[in-house]
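Continuing the batch. This is chain 6 of the set; chains 1 through 5 are on the previous pages. Same settings as before, nothing changed between runs. Recording input and output for traceability.
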Amino acid sequence: MSGDAPKGLRIVGASGAPRMGKKQQRFHKLVKDVARLKEAVRAWTHALPEIHRGIAEHERLVAEHRGVIRELVRGFDRSYSHPSLTKRERACLRRILCETAYEALQDGDDAELKEIYNRHSQSDFDAEAAAEDAAQTDAVRYLLEEQLGLDLGLADVRSLDELEAAMAAKMKELDLEAERARQAAAERKARRKKSAREVAAESRRDAERAQVSKALQEVYRKLAIALHPDREPDPEERARKTLLMQQINVAYEARDLLQLLELQLRFEQIDEAEISTLAEDRLERYNHLLGDQVFQLRQELAEIELPWRVQLDVPLGKLTAAMVQARLQTDLRQASNEIAGVRGDLRRLADPGALKAWLQKALAAQQRARRARSDPFDRLDP
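Output for chain 6:
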């Protein structure tokens, strides 16, 4: 029905009317804030299924990339003994093999890759990884204890996993101490007799809350009386009003004043001119409800955004579902390109001539890098 088209809520006045008062201005701003925040939450809710499908596809590509990297290391190992390779080419291939295998083993244990790495590096991956882990642990523990003054009391921690567990235990201990302090403060406050001013202020707050709830109930009651399906004899119209009543009930339970007022506008129970002339006390109650709604919507939006802020390292600033989707598409393209690049390397491994040409390019690049490090002016050469 054309009469069911949603209307935006705004304060309007006749031409030449006096400027809005402070409470009307606040009402106008809160209405816009609620609408903006609700739209942001709706956008995230609509986009999240597609985002999760993209993440699943990215995880599949990451797993595929791990597989082709492992295949590449095995191909390097097979090609290493090819009789056409020179000593320098073989040394270059060994270096690339060890670097690639080491990075691959960081993503997960693989007995075959570990054996290949140990044989070509003449070292032991597990021992190297343990030493690196211990060094990182010492560095992180130093930052925690010396720079931040956090005493973990665990001098024998030798791995990042152990350090993480120690940190979790310490944070739990600190949280318990803070909670005990809060409880003690609350108990002291409860035992203290309230002053006459505090009792009066509490009574005023209770009265204000009651008035605010009453204002919400009045808007709800008007809509329910006009749209309740039990009073509608026409079956088709009763079904329509049943759906509308469900919307009204949901909005009332959520204390969504903006939705209820917009429904009143839609069904012409009020008009925008009437809203602009609301009594000060009623406007104040509406502002209270809308302010609470803004706070709740901001919390809801922050909870939705939090995991994506952590994952994308965006602690502050604007973050929308569209931004996450764009970043995800970039990551998907990059993962696909990396897989295609590794598959190209695998094809070159199968051709001894292409392998030699590839190694010669790698040697030339290595020589240029070495020369640039020893002679900074060489970087200026065309």
